[in-house]
Amino acid sequence: MSMSAGIEALNVYGGAASLDVRQLCLHRGLDMPRFDNLLMREKTVALPFEDPVTFAVNAAKPLVDALSQEDRRRIEMVVTCTESGIDFGKSLSTYIHHYLGLAGNCRLFEIKQACYSGTAGLQMAVNFILSGTSPGAKALVICTDLSRFALADSAAIQEWAYSEPSSGAGAVAMLVSDTPHVLRIDQGAYGNHGFEVMDTCRPGPDTEAGDADLSLMAYLDCCERAFKDYARRVDGADFRDTFAYLSFHTPFGGMIKGAHRHLMRKLYKAKPDDIEADFARRLSPSLTFGQRVGNTAGGSVFLGLAGLLESVDLAAPCRVGLFSYGSGCCSEFFSGVVTPDGQQRLRAQGIAAQLDRRHALSLDEYEDMLKGAQVIRFGQKDATIAPDTIPAAWDAYQGQGRLALEGMVGYHRQYRFV
User: Fold this and answer.
1) CA-CA 20 to 30 A from 345: which of 31, 94, 311, 380?
2) Helix then strand then coil, % of the chain, to nearest 5
3) What percent of the chain has pLDDT over 90?
4) Bridge pairing between strands 359-360 and 383-384
């Protein structure tokens, strides 16, 4: 019998606080026409009691809690996908496994490959399921990332002026199994392209560096070549006709708009009006959550998938084309099938309502956060978090059963549910 595999359930966690990015751009004196190209409304800002572990657990817990005890025991792999690691050796997955209360017979590890990491984790989990080595097993793949600028890095902020408004925080949790209600992966339908390029990097835990123009060129090149590799493998694949909808890795909305335009011109010599209409119909729905959360790195393409399922009306199963890009670089174009049933399951997570409940930071609160005095930094040995640095945000966070970071004791992070 042929076996299906893909995403059984998906949830997004968008943090406890947000910032109006238009107000930020006006405050920074940025060029507003350039801001409009970001296609952004808000971004998530990680508070001192939040880190990649809390984001990940808070995204995954509703999925795990919804399972029967038997199904929970069948989670045999936890993959964390992040470029916001908290230790050079110890994986985030061990903390996540512990706080989700999963069984001990579980493979735990972490993937770092810039913003491609989430797709790498998903494909690894899908192939584990398809291998049949443990029939009925499930895998939990969690993409979790956050960006923290600091006022001390004012030169870096100036160089990356338009990164600050678009750099967000969040986690996407995916339960992967042989009952892929949300996205059934098209087996063998993928295309890759990668090469060595120093477009963007994180040379330090809180430092972003690179060449924004080079990153754009690498993204466009990979988008074209990864799709051509997909078309080489999949007979009759057509960018315009094969996929009812699209979801691309989204550093900011204008970047995927440019990539879509590039492909439509290259492949079809399409006219501007046709390109705009196609973008509005097939790709813009994927911005539904991204324009409220910002760039979530490895989870971005799946945040787009969630936004797509939240915002369109599916009357029948249809195919989605997904493009994942990670700086440095590696990329993949792949596809899968979504259904009305999967859409209802995604909407039941209440992602939009959770984003609505975030505390809206004032610019004064945000800039106080950027001073970084309350934040646990990479490599700290001991620290205690004052959770009520922003009292309104902490008041809203409590009572939701979410995980919060309390501090560090001998390099070991301490958490509790509040």
Assistant:
1) 94
2) 40, 25, 30
3) 85
4) unpaired
For the chain, the straight-line distance linking the first and the last C-alpha, in angstroms and rounded, comes to 46
Q: What one-character DSSP code corresponds to residue 115?
A: B
Token pair for residue 311? 């915002």
**Residues noted as catalytic:** 83, 115, 249
Alpha-carbon Rg for the chain, nearest whole angstrom, is: 20
Spatial separation of the C-alpha atoms in residues 38 and 53, rounded to whole Å: 28
Give start and end residues of each alpha helix (H) in 357-416: 363-370, 391-397
- What is the distance between the alpha carbons of residues 195 and 329, in angstroms, rounded to a whole number? 6
Give the Cβ contact number of residue 155 at 10 Å: 8
H or E stretch at 165: helix 163-166
The average pLDDT across 241-256 equals: 96
Q: Please, what sign has the CA dihedral across residues 163, 375, 20, 289?
A: positive
Q: Which long-range contacts (CB under 8 A, 24 or more apart) does 288-291 make?
A: 289/12, 289/14, 289/351, 289/352, 289/355, 290/250, 290/253, 291/39, 291/40, 291/41, 291/42, 291/253
Structural element, H or E, at residue 189: strand 183-194
What tokens appear for 145 in the block? Answer: 């990332």
Share of the chain above pLDDT 70, in %: 95
Q: Fold for 6-417, please state it.
A: Peroxisomal Thiolase; Chain A, domain 1 (3.40.47)
The SS3 of residue 2 is coil
This prediction has a pTM of: 0.96
H helices, E strands: number in the chain = 17, 17
Helical ranges in 7-153 per DSSP H: 21-28, 32-36, 52-65, 69-73, 92-100, 117-131
Going by the DSSP 8-state scheme, the letter that residue 284 receives in this structure is G
Reported as a single tens digit per residue, the pLDDT across 189-223 is 999 999 999 998 888 776 778 888 899 999 999 99
Q: Are 389 and 48 in contact (CB under 8 A)?
A: yes
Q: What angle do CA 227, 142, 251 make, to 5 degrees?
A: 50
Give CA–CA dist 236/139, Å, rounded.
32
Comparing CA positions, the residue from 61, 86, 107, 172 lying closest to residue 405 is: 86
